[in-house]
Design brief:
alpha/beta, 5-stranded parallel beta sheet, globular
């Protein structure tokens, strides 16, 4: 399927750019996938360094970030000694595609693959959970009682979905995005309640969306509610993407006038980068998609089909005679709204074993230098991906930049060098923000919080060419580029 998708995408790209008198080679240069697309097309690889350095490397987490890191170590070291601790069965999901499944563009099977097919040769995988960390003695204990010694450790354990923080769902514990979702599926995926943040949930989202559209077709006035929680989340654009796609499906069915779509984010902006925030607000207005800022979902009543939010705001307080200024008071109240269709983006947290361990920060995330990704306390510990405690970047696009920095820095330490002389992680993040069926706004930025497009095109504009990138190119680029450790 991946080769077919890439071929179809290349044909569409050719047709699009031929109309503008641009060759495929120039087109690929224009939208910044030339190197990786060529990698899939020709079998060529990007350059990696070679090193005879030795050391025991332990990677916590066998998802995209962890396995890509293992692969790059394998490509770099003459005699790699790599162990990955991953409690899952290595059957995983191409998570960026779950939005497409939720809108009926892809099937659930299109996002399914097994990470075990991408385990680098010679890498040892321990299918247990890391439960105890002793960074002073360079050891980790597993749920099966093993004690693993390491010289260098990479933490790429991802995040857990904290549906249990929302009252009324009957969910008692956090879960991984690729783990067992049987408890969640007892309530989410039914009666209009959905979430694309796990594989089966994305398929159920499309089922429930079709029922929502059918109600609108019957003449009923319906309401769709979309949430964004008060924690950092993976793929910050996803809550808006599924809302855009719901709008698109309603328009396709000719019943958009019968539906109200409302976005309830905990924050006070659509996006952390001003230019993208302004573009999204404009797009929402043009589509009659409404929003209410500073609303955090705290409870759901699936039977009554109501959602309760903590609405919070700041207001002028009393006069402070010492400071000679007015104070600021934090106010809040509960607001309950009805829904016919609701998409929940759950709060997201680090695993408790990591959050409460010496390598945790107290807040859950692993505290690292944002440029070197080296732990702030333990120099032989690094972290990347969703669990890394850095200001931005819980996306696959970020991990694609991060894992190269982590590998280069660890190899440099193994060789006795200075990692401060190596290239830094500049905070690059990319969000292909789906705005309709057929258009994407490619939001790229870094630590500057300014648009940093790799292509000389206005990044705030919705474009068909980025839709082709999202739907046809990114999955094979991820699987055959990142998971090979070469893209």
């Amino acid at each position: 399927m991946d080769n077919k998708m890439m071929k179809e995408g290349m044909e569409l790209i050719d047709a699009h750019f031929k109309n503008e008198g641009i060759s495929r080679r120039d087109a690929m240069k224009i939208f910044g996938v030339g190197g990786t697309a060529a990698l899939m097309a020709s079998g060529a690889t990007t350059e990696v360094r070679a090193s005879a350095a030795k050391g025991k490397i332990l990677i916590i987490g066998g998802g995209l970030a962890g396995m890509s890191t293992a692969a790059r170590f394998t490509n770099t070291l003459d005699n790699p000694d790599i162990t990955v601790i991953e409690p899952g069965d290595l059957a995983t999901s191409y998570q960026p595609g779950q939005t497409l499944v939720g809108a009926g563009i892809w099937e659930k099977e299109d996002v399914m693959y097994k990470t075990e097919n991408f385990i680098p040769s010679g890498t040892t995988v321990i299918k247990e959970k890391a439960v105890e960390f002793d960074p002073k003695n360079n050891t980790v204990k597993t749920s099966g009682g093993k004690t693993i010694k390491y010289d260098y450790m990479v933490v790429a354990a991802g995040v857990k979905l904290a549906f249990d923080k929302i009252e009324g769902l009957g969910i008692s514990e956090t879960i991984t995005s690729t783990g067992d979702h049987s408890a969640v599926s007892k309530v989410i995926g039914k009666n209009g309640l959905t979430s694309i943040y796990y594989q089966q949930g994305s398929a159920d989202t499309w089922t429930e969306m079709q029922k929502f559209i059918a109600d609108a077709k019957s003449g009923k006035k319906v309401k769709g509610v979309f949430t964004h929680p008060n924690t950092p989340i993976k793929c910050g654009g996803a809550p808006k993407k599924i809302m855009y796609l719901t709008d698109a499906r309603l328009r396709e069915a000719g019943v958009r006038d019968n539906a109200e779509l409302m976005f309830y984010p905990n924050g006070s902006k659509m996006f952390g980068v001003k230019e993208y925030h302004n573009a999204i607000e404009k797009q929402f207005g043009e589509r009659d998609m409404k929003w209410n800022y500073r609303h955090n979902l705290i409870a759901v009543d699936p039977k009554a089909k109501t959602a309760t939010f903590n609405r919070h705001w700041k207001q002028k307080g009393e006069w402070d005679e010492d400071l000679e200024e007015y104070g600021i008071e934090l106010k809040s109240k509960e607001v309950t709204v009805p829904y016919d269709f609701m998409h929940i983006t759950p709060p997201m947290v680090a695993t408790e074993e990591i959050a409460s361990s010496p390598i945790g920060s107290g807040k859950g995330w692993v505290p690292v230098d944002k440029e070197t990704l080296q732990h702030v306390k333990f120099p032989n510990v690094f972290s990347l991906g969703d669990i890394a405690g850095i200001p931005m970047g819980k996306t696959g696009g970020s991990a694609r930049k991060q894992y190269k920095v982590v590998v280069d820095n660890i190899v440099t330490l193994m060789e006795g060098g200075d990692i401060n002389k190596n290239p830094k992680y500049a905070g690059y993040t990319v969000c292909p923000l789906i705005t309709s069926i057929g258009t994407v706004m490619l939001a790229e930025f870094n630590w500057t919080k300014k648009p940093t497009p790799m292509v000389p095109l206005d990044p705030t504009q919705e474009r068909w060419i980025w839709w082709l990138l999202k739907v046809y190119a990114l999955k094979p680029m991820t699987q055959f580029g990142m998971l090979s450790g070469r893209a």
